[in-house]
Amino acid sequence: MSEEVQKHSVHTLVFRSLKRTHDMFLANQTFLPILKDDTAEKIRRAVKARDCYGLVFDRVQTVKAQKANHDGGNVHQAHPEENLAITAAPSANSQSSALVPVTQSTPFSQPPTGQMQLIPKKAPTIPKPKWHPPWKLYRVISGHLGWVRCVAVEPGNEWFATGAADRVIKIWDLASGKLKLSLTGHVSTVRGLAVSVRHPYLFSCGEDRQVKCWDLEYNKVIRHYHGHLSAVYSMALHPTIDILATAGRDSTARIWDMRTKANIHTLTGHTNTVASVVAQTANPQIITGSHDSTIRLWDLAAGKSVCTLTNHKKSVRSVVIHPTLYMFASASSDNIKQWRCPEGNFIQNLTGHSAIINCMAVNPEGVLVSGGDNGTLHFWDWRTGYNFQRAQAPVQPGSMDSEAGIFAMSFDQSGSRLITAEADKTIKVYREDDEATEDSHPINWRPDIIKRRKF
Q: Where are the transmembrane segments (predicted)?
């Protein structure tokens, strides 16, 4: 009696064949042969060096060319028989071409040894910081059931939105602190929020790899942006054109057309999680900070990196753009660094916040705030880097000591209120102390002990 052969669909047969192939070669996937091609390796290294350090190479060539031209001009002007060394001043009998005759009574006269004495430079002066009133806590908002991971303020300054580990986006009234609306749709922690200036849209992203566009007139999702391969940690809206930038754990930043949902660019180059992305109108229009300790400035039109800043030694978890100056700051656990656009020129270090800095915010008055993983807040004067206030966020009763972290913060549109999202499941609102004066809270300015390190 012949055994009847079971019939399978083509899809099942193909799937089984793929599975057998996968099982057969799975053990060898990490033992692929290494192709030793010296030419290809040199090309790869040259391309990577040009991509990461192209500006450095160009500057070195420019300096060398200027130095060669300068040396060449001096050689042609000098007579071959002339002595080019610096010698003692001519005697009184000889004719001198100096505009001011050198005598023994002048304070910078020629020493008897025949060596030239240089006029000492005037010591650089450090500007005194501007006085800022101290900030104090005046409201604690509870409502989320998990860590509050992100916050965004509406352009009209009437409400703000928060996202948390309870997978819910909540809309709060800014004046009263009361809950207005809850939006559900994410299936994992909400990590980023952005409110459009020109449209009634709220954008959100989370650890579920989803990027959503909410229509606030109907309070529902109208668009999804698919493409990220892992959790999405940060997002930013371009101020003038309808594009959205997102970044996350897949080491990339993606640029989306807001309306068509098209992935315009995938910005690759980072080698670890991209923790922060910001956008501005002028170049560089996109700036990213990553856990690979680098900051990249991107050419939005070409979709490639134009500069890589490698000054940080630890993970860069936050990047913030100054609202009025053409500058930005980056935060890491080693220090906070300020940079000048468009080339990313280093300005100064802000040292003293000895914690893992998760977030920063800056207002038009020049107050920079950094929030740490241990619940500490440091307030800085942007121009001088003076730390004028340090605060510890009060812990919500019933929460553990380890839940003292500050994950996100944002100033309102007026810059007079600071909203923080914290690990104790609360939202805290700070404002300036109206009763403080320069006499009650003087500036403890000690420029003699300030040490500014360039790297």
A: none
> Is 307 strand, coil or helix?
strand
Q: What is the 8-class DSSP label of residue 449?
A: G
Task: Record the pTM.
Answer: 0.72
Residue type, 25: F
User: Residue 155: what pLDDT?
Assistant: 95
Between CA 221 and CA 213 the distance in angstroms is 6
Q: Are 281 and 273 in contact (CB under 8 A)?
A: no
- Please choose, from the candidates 194, 196, 276, 267, the residue with its C-alpha nearest in 3D space to the C-alpha of residue 228: 267
Given a contact cutoff of 8 angstroms between Cβ atoms, the answer to whether 288 and 323 are in contact is: no
What are the beta bridge partners of residue 237? 244
**pLDDT, tens only, 3-37:** 565 677 777 888 778 777 777 766 665 555 666 67
Contact 296, 339 (CB under 8 A): no
Q: Is there a contact between 321 and 280 (Cβ–Cβ < 8 Å)?
A: yes
**Euclidean distance between CA atoms 89 and 115, whole angstroms:** 9
Give how far Cα 48 sits from Cα of 51, 269, 273, Å.
5, 10, 19
How many CA within 13 A on the CB side of residue 209? 7
Section 96-100 average pLDDT: 46
The 3-state DSSP class for residue 125 equals coil
207 Cβ contact list (under 8 Å, min separation 6): 188, 189, 191, 231, 232
CATH 2.130.10.10 corresponds to the domain 142-432: yes
Give the tokens for residue 30.
């990490």
Strand partners, 71: none
Going by pLDDT thresholds of 50, 70 and 90, the confidence category of residue 107 is very low
User: Measuring CA to CA, which residue among 350, 297, 294 is closest to residue 321?
Assistant: 297
- Output the six-digit token pair for 406: 């500050």
Instruction: Kindly report, residue by residue over 124-149, the tens digit of the pLDDT.
Output: 567 788 999 999 999 999 999 999 99
Whether the bond into 342 is cis, omega within 30 of 0: yes
Tokens of 155: 């352009």
Half-sphere exposure of 429 (CA within 13 A, CB side): 20
- Give dist(CA 447, CA 125) in Å, integer: 9
